[in-house]
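During the second half of the funding period, the structural biology subgroup turned its attention to how the target accommodates small molecules. The most pressing case was S-adenosylmethionine, which had performed well in the primary screen but for which no bound structure existed. We therefore specified the complex as follows and requested a full 3D prediction, including the ligand pose.
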Amino acid sequence: MFTKQGPTVRELAVQALSSTERGYDLLAPKFDRTPYRTPDRVLDAVARAVRGLGPFGTGLDVCCGTGAGVGVLRELCRERVTGVDFSAGMLAEARAAFPPGDTGPAVHWVRADARSLPFAPAFDLALSFGAFGHFLPSERLGLFAGVHGSLRAGGQFVFPIGAPPPVGSRAYWTLLGFDAAMRVRNVLWRPPFVMYYRTFRLGDVLEDLSRAGFTVRLQPLPGLGARPDGSPRARLVVAVREH
Ligand SMILES: C[S@@+](CC[C@H](N)C(=O)[O-])C[C@H]1O[C@@H](n2cnc3c(N)ncnc32)[C@H](O)[C@@H]1O
């Protein structure tokens, strides 16, 4: 999973004992060589699906990290792209990866907590990859309301969501074990590092999006494969701010 150029076990341990924000500051220089960066095949599958929902002028990548979603937005948006993240270290890596003067729409980087997004309703498209596990279920409605408030009327918020692993499968036990270990860690150690895999359940997510004011639909992401019963392994959530 990790390459020789990725973080050492010791570095990962120090990061895991830091706050979420500080942990990412420390991980940032090696983040793109970890499996935590959203893989290109996921980015490509989402880009293909979202292209048909446009055209888009302005785009926002929520919890942009080193800019995985910003790359997608630069393919899809004509005017301006913004990445927002609370880790200064991750934003520094992102800035270096997208130097000013590149062809394509201009990119702006904003350091802010996604739980209180600082934007006027200016964006046509918002997306997010790989970050929802960092929000407690009680924070999710506020997060979604902030994205809703950052979109123009007619704007869309999109993100992929994976089907949960079958109960009893190896992946099921791995994620359950990870979340249990994080809960123990967060009881025993301060500051907390918030990262849970099993708290972002489709039904709850759809309910919170609706409560935040979105009209929501799902579409399959066929490029990411199918489960043995033929259902898609991942779907795209498309949440629209109607007014
Ligand atoms: C796993 S990384 C994903 C980065 C990128 N979106 C990707 O897919 O490669 C999670 C990112 O979420 C950011 N993050 C976590 N909680 C946040 C918060 N409350 N506000 C802003 N950024 C946050 C972290 O700093 C980190 O850059």
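Two results from this model are relevant to the next phase. The domain at 38-164+201-240 is CATH 3.40.50.150 (Rossmann fold). Residues 20, 24, 36-38, 63-65, 68-69, 85-87, 90, 113-115, 129-131, 134 surround S-adenosylmethionine (CB under 6 Å).
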